[in-house]
Design brief:
alpha/beta; 11 helices
Length: about 325
Amino acid sequence: MKIIIDGMGGDNAPEAICEGAVLAARGIDHEIVLVGDEETLRKCVSKYQGRRPIDNISFVNAGESITNDDAPAMAIRRKKDSSIVIGMNMLKNGEGDVFISAGSTGALLAGGLLIVGRIKGIDRPAICSIYPILGGMASMLCDAGANSECKPRNLVEFALMSSIYMENVLGRENPSVALVNIGEEKGKGNSLTKEAYDLLMNSDLNFKGNIEARDVPKGKADVIVTDGFTGNIILKLTEGMAWNIFKTIKNKFTDGLHARVGSLFLVDKLMELKKEFDYAEYGGAPILGINKPVVKMHGSSGAKGVKSTIMKAIDFVEEDVINVIRESIQVVRGIND
């Protein structure tokens, strides 16, 4: 298997990308291909591999990078020598099995649509983000930001694709599905959620009904479905509140008490909680609905997050999730090749 990685994307590139690639490469037999400024990437990998050379990391040169300030679709069309465009074309042409990037989300979505192409029968690809649950198994939030405006059938597609990913990659048998709404009762919400509710209820998915935002962090469903506007707000609000709470508790119990065994115990427990809620533990977010596996890492991913994403990407490919989605959507829509 060839794992293509954008070596220049993300806040901590190329250092974190190279370090994470080295960490992953030492434990797998697959080839990792880093795309970006080749000289920079070679020096960076050499730094982290130390005296133990690694023979399953290779390089493809890219003379440009796409930034978050670039208009996504325009950048994909104009920056042909960028790491994202080169990586996407390699994926499309069968020169790799999965593409991973911590770069511009918009560019990844545009590249997925314009270069790799959409799965026949899927209206809109979606970002399906792992949502950590304290004291429980993680959920999947979909859409987490790709589509700010959706039709009811889009939400059904998101639920189907997320369920397939959860079952095949995360090992969650017959995952439960819930629809984000302003109340649990049937009939709540706007026209989008009301119609989506009926479609989901009549589907073969394990649909459990509506879920309110306050219940999302409780892990009441394996798959949490919503439009990308709402999903992105839920994700970022949760992330911001979590880190602020951790910081406040840590400061409250450690200021002036470092010598006490009790405070050290609390700090240890706090670190356990922080690890449990750390997105880096779960890898990146798959972009589902396009013809090849593409994974978006958090823009601020460190080496541990990069390594975790690579390991999950291997499962993504090996479990043939894209073809399972393709076959499932054909059955649902009655689409023939």
